[in-house]
Design goal:
697 residues, alpha+beta, Immunoglobulin-like, 8 domains, 10 helices, disordered N terminus
């Protein structure tokens, strides 16, 4: 053999060496891993946990049942799919464990049945709802549905997530040119168009004529339509769900005349034919007003019941021009023969319409019919008017109107409320429809005047009563009228006696503001309140009846105090409740005492009261302002030897008969009503209040 020749390697030996080396390494890893698992098991741990993807992370107890353990590593809330090495601490030792995350849950969804036109192609996702899976999901048709072909088709939707989990959802597809339910319209509606019957815009034409008779007659009608050259069938259903709209009027007929029920109907509106019948027929022998009920029924059976008045009378209606003075009996009987006639009660014809007026004619009652008409246009007077910029005002305030009936005023053209000077034309229309136009010069200036505060003065309250800071307090602005009043009571310590500074505020719409600081004294009453209430109730039981309105009770209170509190020149003016009790128990006291008794009685029936004191007069005098819903009025129940007047719900004008006696500072009191007190108006307000509270408003 040559010396230069090289020895060739033994390939078989090398392969064996690698094999045995790998085997030894694998055995080492296996033995080492086994020892590690044995060590982990020694500590009572689960070395490997298999966990479902998307369900968060396992509680530590899953790895270490019954052990006080914790995670050393911070795991994400949604670990990725695969094997994760996790370190945990058990008994002060850190140990590795393995978390194997896998996704074995197939996607889920619910089927969404769809009806589409032949022109619509849907995505598979549009045929399912509520798709749910922890990972991304591919959605596809198992077989693409035959979109564009009319029919009903089952559709299989395949759902498959990233891990290969797969499920199927069975849905349904309905392909239509025509709506399955046809078309339903309300009787009297306009005729539908061809496209209204179809599921899409097909360039359709109605082959069936839909006429007025069809649209006014409830029922279901076959309809043919040409849609893109194809004739399709549908239905039109006409329904009537609306009852007839009926307006009635009163009838006057000669005795013995036949009156048909339809004669009472001034107007009937319904899409279908109607019938009219009496529900309560009139009595032909009745000579006083009677109420007649008629029933109007349409072709669909919808019913409206309506009432109307009927009078059988020999009197012929007379026509009079509207005016503000009472009608005479002679005017009501201009064509009748009689010896003497008199109206039962006054009738002022200041409202247009037909009226029945009761008279005694030759000693017998008779009803005359009077038609009041207004043919005279309003008389309108104007003069240059100054107002405020950016403050629109009702047109009626810019003119003085004289007319026999109620009127309305309008601006003929829009007013520029930012222009300093302009000509304005006003149209006034009365109840008879007569109109008059008038023009005036309107000048607008900036509003620089703050509101005026009323009813703000030093006051005192008792600890055992609510602090009614805003009772009787108002703010009136020159441009805005009534504006809101706020009060800062932050300096008051609730439920603690003392004197406190309280500030009242008011602002108008342009920012002009006013404030006033007063002293509110909180004191503890020395009066036994239960005893006072007992005496108030005793008097109330004596002077009130169940049928009395609030206005009646106010009068009864006035009369009781006026007659039963006898004058002595002595009272404690620091405690009104004390004086009220003194007056009720002794029947003696001065003006302060008398009006304290009145105040206790008035407030017990819900009236608002506001104490008032003479301003800059000769000596002191005290009385009340009272409000029962129609405004504040003077109320002085003191029976004084100085005068014979009885000031019960009086205005300032009425009190002017003794202006010095009832002189007061108007800025510290609520604004007093200017119209004389009306018992009927107060009763109407009370009735409305009671009805609203009975209805739960």
């Amino acid at each position: 053999m040559s010396q230069n020749s090289k020895r060739q390697p033994n390939r078989k030996s090398s392969a064996l060496a690698r094999f045995f080396g790998g085997l030894i390494l694998a055995l080492g890893i296996l033995i080492g891993g086994s020892l590690l698992l044995i060590g982990i098991a020694y500590f009572g741990l689960k070395p490997v946990v298999v966990w479902e993807y998307g369900t968060g992370i396992p509680e530590i107890s899953v790895f270490a049942p019954g052990k006080a353990a914790s995670y050393v590593d911070t795991l994400p809330q949604k670990p990725e799919i695969g094997l994760h090495t996790v370190r945990i601490e058990v008994n002060g030792w850190e140990r590795p464990v393995w978390l194997y995350v896998e996704d074995t849950t197939a996607p889920t969804a619910t089927a969404r049945e769809q009806t589409v036109s032949t022109k619509t192609v849907l995505k598979p996702t549009e045929l399912i709802d509520h798709l749910t899976d922890a990972d991304k999901v591919w959605v596809d048709f198992l077989e693409i549905p035959p979109f564009g072909t009319v029919g009903d088709f089952p559709v299989t939707i395949v759902l498959q997530d990233v891990s290969g989990n797969r499920s199927e959802v069975e849905s349904a597809l309905h392909v239509r040119r025509v709506k399955d339910t046809g078309l339903t319209v309300e009787a009297g509606d306009e005729a539908p168009q061809a496209d209204d019957f179809l599921t899409d815009a097909y360039g359709a034409t109605l082959l069936t004529v839909i006429d007025e008779t069809m649209l006014r007659t409830p029922g279901t009608y076959p309809i043919e339509i040409a849609a893109d050259g194809v004739t399709v069938q549908s239905t039109l259903t006409v329904v009537d769900t609306k009852a007839p709209d009926v307006e009635t009027h009163m009838l006057f007929r000669e005795p013995g005349a036949t009156v048909l029920p339809e004669e009472f109907c001034e107007r009937i509106e319904d899409a279908c034919d109607v019938t009219v019948a009496y529900l309560v027929a009139p009595d032909p022998d009745e000579r006083s007003f009677q109420q007649v009920t008629i029933r109007v029924t349409d072709a669909a059976g919808n019913v409206t019941d309506a009432t109307a008045g009927l009078l059988f009378t020999h009197a012929t209606p007379v026509v009079v021009e509207a005016r503000n003075t009472s009608l005479t009996a002679e005017e009501c009987l201009e064509d009748a023969e009689y010896t003497g006639a008199v109206l039962v009660r006054d009738f002022v014809p200041d409202t247009t319409g037909l009226f029945a007026v009761t008279l005694y004619v030759d000693g017998a009652p008779e009803i005359a019919l009077v038609e009041v008409q207004d043919t005279v246009a309003p008389v309108v007077q104007t003069k240059p008017f100054q107002w405020y910029l950016d403050h629109p005002i009702d047109a009626a305030r810019l003119c003085t109107v004289t007319d026999a009936t109620a009127t309305e005023a309008f601006y003929v053209s829009e007013v520029d409320w930012r222009a300093a000077n302009q000509e304005v034309t006003i149209l006034v229309r009365d109840a008879g429809g007569n109109e008059t136009e008038a023009t005036l010069s309107l000048s607008l200036i900036a509003d620089l005047e703050p509101p005026a505060l009323y009813g703000v003065q030093d006051r005192y309250f008792y600890l055992d009563e609510p602090y009614a800071y805003l009772t009787g307090v108002t703010a009136v602005d020159n441009a805005d009228g009534l504006v809101e009043v706020t009060v800062d009571t932050s300096a008051v310590t609730p439920n603690k006696t003392g004197s406190y500074r309280v500030t009242y505020f008011a602002s108008d719409s342009v920012g002009n503001s006013i404030s006033r600081i007063v002293t509110i004294t909180v004191k503890k009453s020395t009066t036994n309140t239960k005893k006072l209430d007992k005496y108030v109730k005793k008097v109330a039981d004596r002077i009130f009846t169940d049928k009395m309105s609030l206005a009646d009770k106010v009068t009864a209170i006035y009369e009781y105090v006026f007659d039963n509190i006898h004058y002595v020149a002595k009272s404690d003016k620091t405690d009104w409740k004390k004086e009220a009790l003194r007056g009720l128990t002794t029947g003696k006291g001065d003006c302060f005492t008398a009006n304290c008794v009145a105040r206790a009685l008035l407030e017990s029936v819900g009236a608002e009261t506001y104490p008032i004191r003479r301003y800059k007069g000769n000596g002191n005098h005290y009385w009340l302002l009272v409000n029962i819903g129609t405004g504040w009025y003077h109320f002085d129940a003191h029976n004084s030897w100085e005068h014979g007047y009885q000031c019960c719900m009086w205005t300032d004008a009425q009190c002017s008969v003794m202006s010095a006696y009832w002189r007061y500072d108007k800025t510290t009191c609520p604004a007093v009503a200017t119209e004389p007190f009306s018992k009927s108006a107060a009763q109407a307000v009370e009735k409305e209040w009671l009805q609203s509270h009975q209805n739960g408003e």
